[in-house]
Every structure is written in C-alpha cells, then in structure tokens.
Amino acid sequence: MSLFCSALDFSYLCSGEKRIKMKQLSNITTAQYEIINMLSCINNDEDVKALKAVIVQFLNERLQNEIDKLWEDGTLSDEVVAGWKKEHMRTPYKC
Predict the structure, then answer these.
(1) How many Cβ atoms are within 10 Å of 94's Cβ, its own excluded?
(2) Suppose 70 and one of 8, 31, 49, 75 were both cysteines; which one would form an S-S bond, judging by CB atoms 3.0 to 4.6 Å apart?
C-alpha cells in the first residue's frame, strides 16, 4: 500500500456514529481496521456488487502474479499441468 493510500481517512464519507472504534475490536490489524471503516460507508447492494468486483479483480491480479512466478522458476510447466489430468485425488472409501 502506498503512503498516500495509507494516510487516507475515509471518515469524511461517513457519519461519525458509523465509524468503528479500534478499542471495540481485538486481534485485528491496522489494515483490517481501515477496511472495516471504509465498508461502513456502503449502504446499498449496488455498491456491494461494485466493491466485490474490485476485490475480485485485485485478488485475480495477485493470483496471476504468483502463478507467473511459478512458471518462471519452473515449478509449473506444461508437463506438470498435463500430469494433473492423470491424477486421481479421490478419497478412498472402504466398501
């Protein structure tokens, strides 16, 4: 996260009573706290859908970057993927 983003305060978007106080939460990181406070501003299903789309895109980009690293270092290859087609990962059941 950039310094600019981490310094943003979204409280101006929300009414004061909606903001969650850090002391109300336990075992939560500062990043999680900031996300929760931003989410308190979402009031309708349309915004939830839009936010989900952004989060899915973000996670997809991170996943694709990790997969690309595995291909570059040789952990993943066409042979490995072809081998997955032949794997039987079923749970053996006793009859």
Answers:
(1) 3
(2) 75
Residues of the chain by 3-state class (helix, strand, coil), percent to 5: 65, 0, 35
For residue 52, what are its two tokens? 């989900």
DSSP character string of 70-87: HHHTTSS-HHHHHHHTT-
Q: In terms of Cα–Cα distance, which of 36, 30, 31, 29 is closest to 14?
A: 36
Going residue by residue through the chain, which has 95 residues, state the pLDDT in tens, using 9 for 90 and above: 333 333 344 444 454 555 556 556 667 888 888 888 888 888 899 998 999 999 999 999 999 999 999 999 999 999 999 998 888 877 777 77
What is the reported pTM? Answer: 0.56
